[in-house]
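Priority: medium. Attachment 1 of 2:
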């Protein structure tokens, strides 16, 4: 006998803040009367930390510090054992989004080595011959916005062969001069990163100019930390040998779920950086790095 189980949240965007109520319905569709041994709903918020392959084995103490961190956990019995009539049945539910003790609800974030996720799970127990049914549904938690206004901190930059830090062959580098600015490095996560780049001159034709958003995830404990930087997104803002002296706009939207307000706790950190990458035709790669601080207002 076919039966479908689903969790539907009242909010279409599935975004909640601490202190609010997560509400919705459990939807059951079956052709005929269905016998069950109880329907249960659980809500869980967990931080999963993972070590990169280069860190495994370096710190023995890491294995204790990378256990999942539980932020919130609660269970309710939605329906006692009994029968569900044939057709469509909706069972409403409500969960207060409140932590116990001094725990903090961090914002939902899907990273490589740090993952912060909030899920609802519905389980329907059935007799031995019939298989138990279960369904998961992720909802998104946003941290409470800051009351204070974010003061933008514009950054001007000039890139020449002399300003590059890690180059052994400075003498063999072609001459170039690139100027520009970022309107802010203290960024509001719901607003785009903006600025401009101007190629003043370059001896070698330019192949491409790209904007690279990077997450820097740190996991660890007092014994040591593993810090890993990985790319989130790469946007090409110019292709080919651009006109010299022309302003090229920088515009990057922060992707949902893959970014969150900059976070620092005892066990892990999530930080962000942006790289301006200029590729020359002779395959030289020029990178200028800017740390970003993201917040929600």
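Attachment 2 of 2:
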């Amino acid at each position: 006998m076919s039966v479908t189980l689903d969790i539907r949240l009242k909010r279409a965007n599935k975004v909640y803040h601490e202190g609010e109520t997560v509400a919705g319905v459990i939807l059951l569709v079956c052709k005929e009367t269905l016998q069950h041994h109880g329907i249960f709903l659980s809500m869980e918020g967990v931080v999963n930390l993972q070590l990169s392959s280069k860190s495994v084995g370096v710190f023995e103490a890491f294995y204790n510090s990378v256990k999942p961190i539980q932020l919130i956990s609660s269970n309710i019995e939605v329906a006692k054992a009994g029968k569900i009539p044939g057709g469509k049945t909706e069972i409403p539910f409500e969960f207060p989004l409140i932590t116990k003790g001094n725990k903090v609800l961090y914002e939902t974030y899907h990273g490589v080595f740090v993952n912060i996720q909030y899920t609802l799970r519905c389980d329907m127990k059935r007799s031995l011959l019939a298989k138990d049914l279960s369904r998961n549904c992720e909802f998104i938690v946003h941290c409470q916005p800051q009351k204070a206004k974010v003061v933008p901190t514009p950054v001007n930059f000039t890139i020449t062969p002399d300003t590059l830090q890690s180059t052994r062959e400075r003498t063999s580098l072609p001459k170039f001069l690139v100027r520009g600015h970022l309107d802010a490095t203290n960024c509001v996560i719901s607003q785009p990163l903006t600025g401009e780049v101007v190629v003043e001159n370059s001896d070698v034709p330019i192949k491409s100019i790209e904007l690279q958003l990077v997450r820097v995830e740190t996991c660890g404990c007092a014994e040591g930390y593993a810090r890993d930087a990985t790319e989130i997104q790469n946007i090409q803002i110019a292709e080919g040998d651009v006109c010299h002296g022309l302003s090229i706009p920088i515009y990057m939207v922060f992707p949902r779920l893959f970014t969150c307000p900059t976070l620092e706790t005892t066990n892990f950190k999530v930080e962000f950086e942006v790289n301006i990458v200029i590729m020359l035709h002779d395959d030289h790669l020029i990178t200028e790095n800017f740390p970003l601080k993201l917040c929600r207002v």
